[in-house]
Design goal:
Layout (H helix, E strand, L loop, with lengths): L13 E6 L8 H13 L2 E8 L3 E2 L4 E2 L10 H11 L4 E6 L4 H15 L5 E5 L13 E4 L8 H9 L6 H13 L4 E11 L2 E7 L10 E6 L7 H13 L3 E12 L8 E13 L8 E7 H5 L3 H5 L5 H16 L1
Parallel strand pairs: 1-2, 1-6, 2-5, 6-7, 8-12
Antiparallel strand pairs: 3-4, 8-9, 8-10, 9-10, 9-13, 11-12
Length: 320
């Protein structure tokens, strides 16, 4: 349906607003938008965008982000505290603008089956993506406030209040348990494997462990991620990588989230070890690792399963 910006407000019984309002408090731009709609119409509905849950209906997974940190109920309360007579309903994100537009129309019609409805949007709003049946009107407030910048500012402030601490606890409990991916990388040259120690001031020298690092959001594959971690630790080293095994673990007593450790072997082709941080690196031969008491004395205990795997793989290679 063609959208008409030059509409006669009096022709519409219902004013509708679509937005996210992902802030701890409504800012002046939000106030201008909602105040305008409330003043123009006796019936007002606000559709709050919510991210789609992953998984199954029985086990939905909500993944909070910096753009979508507040759940629907928190934002509903925030709006209705100031505008108690406004109806607030959720509208789920969709992959298609057409399907999303149909969902918007259906949500509105569930509340207002027969009334004539006008959809309002602010600057950078949903209007260009809307392909539904209702007319739209864009409002451009004189004051433009970036919600992203407001969230960035809020995120840096710690408040001395019980409500603030309660909010942190609430948010933590809304998170779905996460399985993090951690690369444990065995850099190999001939029959030697590279281990490292993190040198911390005032900390007694610990034992050696394989090179490791968490998977990154931009890793396109295990191989790419492992090479990125190596680059961050030892510089530009050309290697051939191969996935070997995996094992999950609860790290640091965290009962909610777990870590899946992926053992990756990285056969060195060329390059030199250039520490990129406060690390000590050392090569140990398979013969060293096999010798009695060596691992207990020199290697961190949580590395034993991975090192035993590497030793056994080397034995099989020698047999063949």
């Amino acid at each position: 349906m063609e959208k008409n910006e030059d509409v006669n407000i009096k022709d519409y019984e219902v004013g509708a607003v679509v937005g996210r309002f992902q802030l701890s408090d409504l800012h002046d731009g939000h106030g201008f938008l909602i105040d305008t709609v409330v003043n123009n119409h006796k019936k007002v509905i606000i559709l709050l965008g919510v991210t789609r849950a992953l998984g199954t209906p029985e086990n939905p997974v909500r993944i909070p982000s910096r753009e979508n940190v507040l759940d629907f109920t928190s934002r509903q309360y925030m709006i209705q505290e100031i505008y108690p007579n406004v109806i607030v309903v959720p509208i789920q994100d969709k992959n298609s603008n057409e399907i999303w537009s149909e969902a918007v129309d259906q949500k509105i019609r569930e509340v207002f089956p027969n009334e004539k409805v006008l959809l309002y949007g602010g600057r950078d709003s949903f209007i260009p993506c809307y392909h539904g049946k209702f007319d739209t009107k864009a409002l451009d407030p004189e004051i433009y406030i970036s919600a992203t910048e407001v969230r960035n500012s809020v995120s840096k402030e710690v408040l001395k209040s019980s409500d603030f601490r309660s909010g942190q606890i609430y948010h933590a409990y809304q998170q779905t348990p996460v399985l993090y991916t951690n690369y444990k990388i065995a850099v190999q040259e001939d029959d030697k494997i590279l281990f490292c120690i993190i040198n911390e001031i005032g900390v007694k020298k610990s034992k050696f462990r394989l090179l490791e690092g968490l998977a990154g959001i931009n890793d396109q594959s295990i191989e790419v991620g492992a090479k990125r971690v190596l680059g961050n630790l030892i510089g530009n080293l050309e290697v051939d990588t191969q996935y070997e095994m995996s094992k999950s673990k609860i790290e640091f007593g965290n009962k909610t989230h777990r870590v899946m450790n992926l053992l990756i072997t990285a056969k060195k082709n060329w390059g030199s070890i250039k520490p990129q941080g406060n690390f000590t690196f050392q090569w140990f031969s398979i013969k060293d690792l096999e010798s009695e008491g060596f691992m207990i004395k020199n290697i961190e205990e949580d590395q034993f399963d991975f090192v035993h795997y590497l030793i056994n793989k080397n034995r099989e290679k020698c047999i063949h």
